[in-house]
Amino acid sequence: MESKLTALGSEATLAEATGAVSRDAFHRIVLEHQRRIHRVLLALLHDSDAADSLTQECFLRAFERRAGFRGEANIGTWLVRIAINLARDHTRSRRVAFWRHLLRNDGSHNATMPDPGPSPDRALMARERLHAVQTTVDRLSHRQRACFLLRFVEAMTLEEIAQAMDLKVGTVKAHLARAVGTVRRAVVEWEGSWEDI
């Protein structure tokens, strides 16, 4: 067991540990990758509670499916793929739950935003710009949003994103180009609206 634990270094593949992988050996994989998986989920969902629970779910699914890991990608990329799929499923189920709740409660849905309080103009502009970008990113299709966040938040290469999302590199480039174009247009519009004030 000790030799198997030693074999699970940062570049180890799960295929090396498949079969009789111990809980301790898998725990080491969790410790190595959990922060990144949590960041990816938090960036996709903007909900720390959901990111926490889905991070756990990601590793639970990975452990249950470890025998099916083919070793074509590294462990980190495989885990990111699982996390992206969990985030997509979570978003879908939240939309369904929202509409069910809305229809049951005769349309009264109150969302309150925390008051950021007074701040200097520059801080306000920076927050507004960030909000404009975040709102735009949230409105992107699931694939475009995932490509954008994995590239610019996680600094993953195009090849890593392609592996994580089970897409071709050219498809990743296309999604990324559309996402970046949409975000740029939103920032230009936002800056134009500030100049009009």
Characterize the structure shown.
- With 197 residues, the chain is mostly helical.
- The chain has 2 domains: 108 residues, Rna Polymerase Sigma Factor, Chain: A, CATH 1.10.1740; 81 residues, Arc Repressor Mutant, subunit A.
- The chain has 9 helices and no strands.
- Helix 3 packs antiparallel against helix 4, helix 5 crosses helix 8 and helix 7 packs across helix 9.
- The termini are far apart.
- The N terminus is likely disordered.
Structural class by SSE content: mainly alpha
Q: Please state roughly what percent of the residues sit in beta strands, choosing from under 5%, 5-15%, 15-25%, 25-35%, 35-45% or over 45%.
A: under 5%
Count up the helices: 9
CATH homologous superfamily designation of the largest domain = RNA polymerase sigma factor, region 2, helix turn helix motif
Q: Tell me, what's the shape?
A: globular
What's the story with the biggest beta sheet?
A: none
Integer average pLDDT: 77
Low-confidence stretches: 1-20, 105-113
- Structural domain count: 2
Question: What share of the residues lie within helices?
Answer: over 70%
Number of strands: 0
Distance linking N and C termini:
67 Å
Looking at the overall shape, the CATH architecture of the largest domain is Orthogonal Bundle
Secondary-structure element pattern, one letter each: HHHHHHHHH
CATH secondary-structure class of the largest domain: Mainly Alpha
Provide the gyration radius in Å: 20 Å
